[in-house]
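Exercise 7b. Backbone tokens:
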């Protein structure tokens, strides 16, 4: 009988060979299914209750706004403490917030302001926890599989985007938003079980001695001094502000522009997730074929075009096809941006790098989704979103023209960064 290593394997699935990574990946998938059930339920509730894109975008923005301030703190804490225990604590706090929302829904006391407050608090906890979770995943695979693990992590998030909205549509039809919120609350148990089964590699005890604010400053300095990381973070901000709001404004597009309801919202969210999962299965092959930097350049150029086509879709069916390809392109671009930042950092700084990436992504997305929603109420959703897509395309083409070398293949910086010592400042 042939050994298993002789069997054909998709390159993108290699991180699954590491049991700890797979356990955390699976637990996160279950949790994200619950999260997307809540996201769809709350998006439909806010849109139908207020009738304003500004409110829908504003609620989404509140969950990302804490990243602007708290991300560097979360990264430094994740590098300072045991990442598994730290991620578990954050998961428990998110479960508690989800439980509060569930109880209020069952008691008929749900309201848009309450949703806004809990979204903001959940954003705070998520911002402080994400760097630890991201760095823990990076520890569970070898460095040469980091891009693949990042893509698979995005794939599980988007697989949750497929299954969660589908289940949400059924639950909303059968029992209302309270049951979708209950499902999200229970889903956090999967993450806790997964974390209990992981044994992360031993870390250098000296890293824990670095003062909190010194650790924050050090992570920012390394990122600032590296021209490639600075450019990637700038690109992340503009993607988040100009293109990514298509995610948060799906309920507005489905209900106001296409004249549909909760089922259509779930369909569009599901199709985006399906596109992302499909892309995740092939992103490893694409990265090997083109190289990460070239692939990132191609994805940045095409995402603006696909975004414009999506916003011009005349029917739900056309929009569903368009958002499938847009979701695939978005995953390729964002996983490449994230992996590029992590690959250029030594392991001891990877959580801080993840926190800076989250800060830039959260700031850009919060600003973009709120501003586009508010402007859409005044001049029309399609006009606003088509304009921002065109602006992003112009920025990409200008960068390609002025700095073509930044779209060629890159090297990593990990060996060039000195580890922390007691004399570092």
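Sequence design result:
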């Amino acid at each position: 009988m042939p050994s298993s290593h002789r069997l054909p394997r998709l390159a993108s699935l290699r991180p699954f060979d590491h049991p700890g990574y797979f356990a955390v990946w699976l637990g996160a998938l279950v949790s994200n299914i619950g999260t997307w059930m809540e996201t769809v339920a709350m998006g439909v509730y806010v849109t139908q209750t207020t009738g304003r894109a500004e409110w829908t975008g504003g609620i989404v923005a509140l969950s990302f706004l804490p990243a602007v301030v708290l991300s560097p703190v979360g990264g430094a804490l994740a590098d300072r403490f045991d990442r598994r225990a730290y991620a578990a604590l954050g998961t428990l706090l998110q479960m508690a917030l989800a439980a509060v929302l569930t109880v209020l829904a069952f008691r008929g006391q749900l309201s848009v302001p309450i949703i806004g407050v809990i979204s903001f608090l959940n954003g705070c906890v998520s911002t402080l926890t994400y760097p630890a979770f991201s760095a823990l995943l990076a520890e569970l695979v070898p460095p040469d599989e980091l891009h693949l693990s990042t893509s698979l992590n995005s794939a599980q998030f988007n697989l949750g985007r497929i299954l969660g909205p589908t289940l949400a549509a059924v639950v909303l039809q059968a029992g209302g938003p309270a049951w979708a919120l209950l499902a999200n609350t229970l889903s956090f148990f999967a993450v806790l079980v997964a974390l209990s089964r992981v044994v992360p590699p031993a870390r250098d005890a000296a890293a824990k001695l670095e003062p909190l604010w010194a650790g924050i400053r050090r992570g920012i300095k390394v990122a600032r001094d590296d021209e490639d990381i600075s450019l990637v973070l700038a690109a992340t901000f503009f993607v988040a502000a100009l293109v990514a709001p298509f995610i948060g404004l799906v309920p507005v597009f489905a209900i106001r522009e296409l004249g549909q309801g909760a089922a259509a919202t779930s369909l569009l969210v599901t199709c985006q997730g399906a596109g992302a999962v499909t892309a995740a299965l092939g992103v490893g092959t694409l990265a090997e074929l083109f190289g990460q930097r070239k692939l990132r350049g191609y994805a940045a150029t095409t995402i603006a075009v696909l975004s414009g086509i999506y916003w011009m879709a005349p029917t739900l069916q056309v929009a569903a096809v368009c958002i499938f390809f847009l979701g695939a392109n978005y995953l390729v671009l964002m996983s490449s941006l994230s992996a590029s930042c992590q690959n250029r950092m030594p392991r001891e700084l990877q959580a801080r790098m993840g926190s800076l990436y989250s800060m830039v992504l959260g700031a850009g997305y919060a600003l973009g989704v709120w501003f586009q929603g508010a402007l859409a109420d005044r001049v029309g959703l399609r006009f606003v979103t088509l304009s921002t897509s065109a602006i992003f395309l112009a920025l990409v083409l200008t960068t390609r023209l002025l700095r073509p070398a930044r779209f060629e293949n890159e090297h990593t910086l990990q060996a060039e960064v000195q580890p922390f010592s007691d004399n570092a400042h």
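Instructor comment: Residues 19-50 form the longest helix (32 residues). The chain has a mean pLDDT of 80.
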